[in-house]
Amino acid sequence: MFSSPIWSSLLFGAVLPVCVGLVHLSVIWTRKRRFYKNLPCPPHSFLFGHLKVLGEVMQTLPKNVHPQVAMAIVREKYNLPHVFYMDLWPIATSLLMIQDPDIAAQITQTKNHPKHTLNKEFLRNMTGEQSIVTSEGAEWRKLRSMLGPAFSSNHLSTLVPDITDHVLKFRGQLQELVKSEKIVRMQDLACNLTIDVISQIVLGRSFNSQTTFSSITYDFRKSISWAGTSMDIISRNKSRLPIWWYCRRLDRELTAEIQERHAGRATTNTTTASKAVVDLVFQAYQDEKLGLSTSKEAQKPDVDPEFMLLAVNNIKTLLLGGHDTTATTIAYTYYLLSQHPDILSAIRSEHSTAFSPSIKTTASLLESGQASKLLSNSNLPFTTAVIKEVLRLFPTGSTIRMSSDPATETLSYQSQSLPLTNHALWISHYGIAHREDLFPDPAAFDPYRFMPGKEVPRDAWRPFEKGPRNCVGMELAMLEIKAVLALTLREFDFESVYGRETDGERGLREAPERHGGRAYQMIAFAPKPAGGMPMRVRLRAGSEKEMEKEG
Hints:
By secondary structure, this protein is α+β, with helices and mostly antiparallel strands. The chain contains 21 helices and eleven strands. The chain has helices at 4-34, 51-58, 67-77, 101-110, 117-127, 137-147, 153-180, 186-203, 215-225, 233-238, 240-267, 277-290, 305-339, 341-354, 359-366, 371-374, 381-393, 429-433, 474-488, 500-503, 543-550; strands at residues 83-86, 95-98, 184-185, 399-401, 410-413, 416-419, 424-427, 492-496, 521-524, 526-529, 534-539. It is globular. The N and C termini lie far apart (99 Å). Its cofactor is heme. One of its GO terms (molecular function) is heme binding.
């Protein structure tokens, strides 16, 4: 039998750490919750912070709605200022929501705050740590300088014939859908197009995803399908293993692509300077690490792990960013134009005037040396305005930054000093673009607000972000979307078919109409149209004759 003193000692030894832990937790809990006293935020709970507030809003929305939509509704519901806090600890990272263009400009343009560590944590498997998206400081500047020539205006103008060729294949896919009368997820169909375009720019050859099965495209899709929100600890951890698995497959496949690319160039003794991203990375690495040596070692980057890591990381990054968001914009453009026949008629008229009434002639012009001028903003002002308005209503991204000095740095807003300690600074492009004081009647699809001569509030339109870390591929995205619209809008009519046919008998919950209705933005790595934008494609009246002429 154990004596009573021994049992007492054991009990004390077990209980003491628990008590100490509880006291420590209560101190942390109290400190974190008291932080928000007298700061702009929704009604705050000592127990739940703002988790309950966010949960109540989310209960009124589809489960997979993008958080940027939910945050805009939180601000509306509680009539908050355009910079406000969201205490989401301990479930997710707490936020300073920024829906003010002047404050956004301070953070990304004036001071250029570093990206939050959430970006690197979330993208570590998908892009790697040595990528243009996750790097900072001198490393980022080197990568931006290295990759920039692949996305320069002059270089992109030489690629328009290739882009046109891919768009014509996309047009062929649409023609097949007309014949079959099948419902298609436009997001997926557009993704096959855009990944073929970006692979041409990045690897010097297309994956041909529109006509054949591509294992690289498949693995990209699977990794993206597992990616939830970077701020939700639960979904982030749940997705780690499948994302890791598919990204390791991608690493092997892209490594083989790079090795094959350089083996081919070495065999043919190619000396012409290439601006494919993989060649730019190799050249920059060779210049820095190996000088201008022509030694056997210098000609075999495939055996150098450091080069391969740098190349694979940035190729994955550009493939990911270069196809996903552009496809989303194409899908939403078809959707919005199908809902507004007057605007559709106006853009079709502009294309017939700027190019030719004939689609075949339009394609020939885009494959000529005039392509850059023909696709310019000045030649297609209304098309440019339409794309800008689509990106305002349904921005495909945002940026999350952090303080350079989180212990002491503050932000001044409406005569109040706002501390930045332990908060992600989420600049919500969606929140800014849906402000009534910046864009009157913000839920309306009104491209005329972006026509030449119209004044757009400074720094309020920022779908590609602004400042040094703006999107390196923004000009490519605009060129690609313009080419798609010019070669498809006058031939096809698009009809969204949300409803029982695609949702099932029970249907699916909608977002408020001012936030997209049934076509709300869902979270799937980046904002995407709910359900992949199910559509039917039909031939426009009169376009049969055009097709007969081409035949």
